[in-house]
Write a structure and sequence with these properties.
binds calcium ion, 40% helix, globular, nine-stranded mixed beta sheet, Inosine-uridine Nucleoside N-ribohydrolase, Chain A, 12 helices, alpha/beta, binds alpha-D-ribofuranose
């Protein structure tokens, strides 16, 4: 039976492919897509989600916009990585898929309380919507199967030396999520940096001969240029689909027990995830920390999902 999921995202090049993986792989049932400010403003991340769904033929999944700024931290978008539109590179057709009028948090809550089984939340962005959900609707937690998020790191950051973008963008929100008691799996930079979009991967998308395959190749080519310029990566890490892949097949992403706390006050470390893999702090396990990616299995599922969606459009 496919696992019911909701993606909360800030498209964002890697978010775009995470949406496609979730919509195209039969192991998950994508119930909704919600958007939040992060990589770009809420208006742009929401428009981008609509663009991706239009191009990929994802017409039956509700899209709802959420919070337009973090709980406390001022919004600082990642236009250096994702460009002015948030999805620079390809040209997208005018979106024909629209948003639903509900706030993202209300849509998630409505689905959680009406779906026949608990739902997995897959946040691939700052955790503002998820923190607001848990705070506004305390009954929601019992209806969440688990939260499998892209964010944090067992090692260094990518927004500051200590903090990863999604957590650093809204540390208070991340703190609420990790303290919530809801089962959390953290797919941090330490594992997502194993999902490198090499030229061979880009060729697999181009060789599909579909508009969607070509667009994925163009997205990855732009994304590679900014990652090369900013961090000297030869090939860019495709962060967000790793969280979806963990839900699709846990064998693709190997995890271990951990205690994760979010640093809120450190002068130089605010937004860091402090991941205790060895019980140094004698604190309870509150998360699964992703450590190893089966990269070949990951790319096979990613490419197959895009082929499935693209094949529907020819
Ligand atoms: O640090 C990587 C994360 O920040 C990814 O989710 C990317 O889309 C950006 O939001
Ligand atoms: Ca993201």
């Amino acid at each position: 039976m496919p696992v019911p999921i909701i993606i909360d995202c800030d498209p964002g090049h890697d978010d775009a492919l995470a949406i496609m993986l979730a919509a195209g792989d039969p192991a998950v049932d994508l119930l909704a897509i919600t958007t939040v400010a992060g990589n770009q403003t809420l208006a742009k991340t929401t428009l981008n989600a609509r663009r991706v769904c239009t191009l990929a033929g994802i017409a039956d999944v509700p899209i709802a916009a959420g919070c337009d700024r973090p709980l406390v931290e001022p919004l600082k978008v990642a236009d250096d990585v994702h460009g002015t539109s948030g999805l620079d590179g390809p040209q997208f057709p005018e979106p024909t898929v629209d948003v639903v009028p509900e706030h993202a948090v209300d849509l998630i809550h409505r689905i959680l309380t009406s779906h026949p089984e608990p739902v997995t939340l897959v946040p691939t962005a700052p955790l503002t919507n998820i923190a607001l959900l848990l705070t506004r609707y305390p009954d929601a937690a019992a209806r969440i199967r688990e939260i499998v998020l892209m964010g944090g790191s067992t090692e260094r950051g990518n927004r500051t030396p200590a903090a990863e973008f999604n957590v650093q963008a809204d540390p208070e929100a991340a703190d609420i999520v990790f303290r919530s008691g809801v089962p959390v799996t953290m797919c941090g930079l330490n594992v997502t940096h194993q999902a490198l979009a090499t030229p061979e991967v880009v060729a697999r998308f181009n060789d599909m001969g579909t508009d969607l395959g070509r667009t994925c190749a163009e997205l990855l080519t732009f994304y590679a240029s900014t990652y090369r310029e900013l961090w000297g990566f030869q090939d860019p890490p495709l962060h967000d689909p790793v969280a979806v892949a963990r839900v699709i097949d846990p064998k693709i992403v190997h995890c271990v027990d951990a205690n994760v706390v979010v640093e809120l006050h450190g002068r130089y470390t605010r937004g860091a995830t402090v991941v205790d893999l060895h019980r140094y702090m004698d604190r309870p396990v509150n998360a699964q920390a992703a450590i190893t990616l089966e990269a070949d299995l990951f790319w096979d599922r990613m490419v197959a999902a895009v082929a499935t969606l693209g094949g529907r459009k020819g």
